User: Fold this.
Amino acid sequence: MTSATPELISPRSPRVVAARRLAKRNFRGKERLFLAEGPQAVREAAGHGGDTLVELFATVEAAERYADIIGEARGAGARVHLADEQVIEDISTTVTPQGLVAICRFLDTPFEAILAARPRLVAVLAHVRDPGNAGTVLRCADAAGADAVVLTDASVDLYNPKAVRASVGSLFHLPVAVGVPVEQAVAGLRDAGVRILAADGAGEDDLDDELDKETMGGPTAWVFGNEAWGLPEETRDLADAVVRVPIHGKAESLNLATAAAVCLYASARAQRASGGCRSVTESE
Assistant:
């Protein structure tokens, strides 16, 4: 399975240099490639199909420990390189690399294709600048069974390494559109029969009241704003309702990812009320 000596031992190898450049947004955009690190992300990339997984760099130890993932990567047509630990450290963007770093092709879906699929639950990230939050909201949307995520043109790069890590593989699970102006996103979703809800701590409507009124069972898109200052007034005005998550205790507020999880799961429960919802504890 593995050789005694790594194939790549020099950080100056052209392949290593090319991979390292993908930590920068301009190189990612030019090549339409991004980095995915760790066994979970690499496994999801290999299982995504097509030619998503392009190359995989692995230490000898990681290749032995995750032999099944190496096999899946090769089966997906990826070039697999055994590499010295220093090489992995140079490519990796984490403090403690897990020995596997993949190069993957961009995955974003045209917004028109998302609309054509008639989505029932969508998360729209407007002005979200923190990559960790963006990736975590994507993960929450995936877990809640959302049909798509839309990142507006004012939001962070979907392929920022921190966003990819925070998604914990969910980036490979559901359609994501990027660079869509918020006005276009709202108008397109509304034309597709989707109700637009803006999540805002100062919203006039209470999430509990919305659930009690049974108004959330239809197709819904949640618009989430900037971590520090929320949604601007002009964006709130685009929504059918501006909804706040009720604070029943003494906490001043909820962070973006937590609020997004609450909102998305509330919609998921309302939409699945008649048919039930699969528990995370149930076996496949």
Q: What stands out?
A: The first helix runs from residue 14 to 21. Residues 207 and 245 are 5 Å apart (CA to CA). The two ends are 31 Å apart (CA to CA).
